[in-house]
Amino acid sequence: IKNKDKEKDKDRDKDKDKDKDKDKDKDKAKAEEEAQDKKKEPDFSLRQPLPTASPLTRLLVLIQRELVLKANSRKLSTHNDVKLLQQYTQQLIQGTIMALTQHVYPLYGEYRTECLNIIGQSFIAKVFLPLLTVLSGTMFVDLFRQMIES
C-alpha cells in the first residue's frame, strides 16, 4: 500500500511539474506577444523636437521675401530689382533641379522617408515651392490686369 501511495505521489508530482511547465510556456508566449505588441505600437515616451530648417535655408527665405517685395513694388519690368529676382529665380530652379537629380533621386527608392524629410526641411519646400506659388500668382495678376485694361 505504501508503494502505491508513493507511486501516486510521484504521479502527482509529475503532473504538477507538467502543469508548471505548461504555465511557464504560457507565460513565455504571453511575454513574446506583449513584446511584439510593444514593437508595433510607437513609443511616445521619447519625444523628439521637430526638425527645423537650416540657417542657410532661413537666410534664403529672408532674402527671397525681400526680393519679391521689392520686385512687386516696381512698375517697370526692366528695373534692377525685377532683374535680380529673375536671376535669383533662375539660379534657384537650377539648384533645385541639380539637388533633386544628383542627390535625392538616386537614393529615393531605398530611403524614401528620409528623402521626403530632407525635401520637407530643405530649401526646396521652404524656398522653392513658395517662390513658384508667388510667381504663378503674379503671372495671373498680370494676365488679369491686361484683361481688365483691354
Automatic annotation (TrEMBL):
<keyword id="KW-0812">Transmembrane</keyword>
<feature type="compositionally biased region" description="Basic and acidic residues">
    <location>
        <begin position="1"/>
        <end position="44"/>
    </location>
</feature>
<protein>
    <submittedName>
        <fullName>Uncharacterized protein</fullName>
    </submittedName>
</protein>
<keyword id="KW-1133">Transmembrane helix</keyword>
<feature type="region of interest" description="Disordered">
    <location>
        <begin position="1"/>
        <end position="50"/>
    </location>
</feature>
<feature type="transmembrane region" description="Helical">
    <location>
        <begin position="123"/>
        <end position="144"/>
    </location>
</feature>
<keyword id="KW-0472">Membrane</keyword>
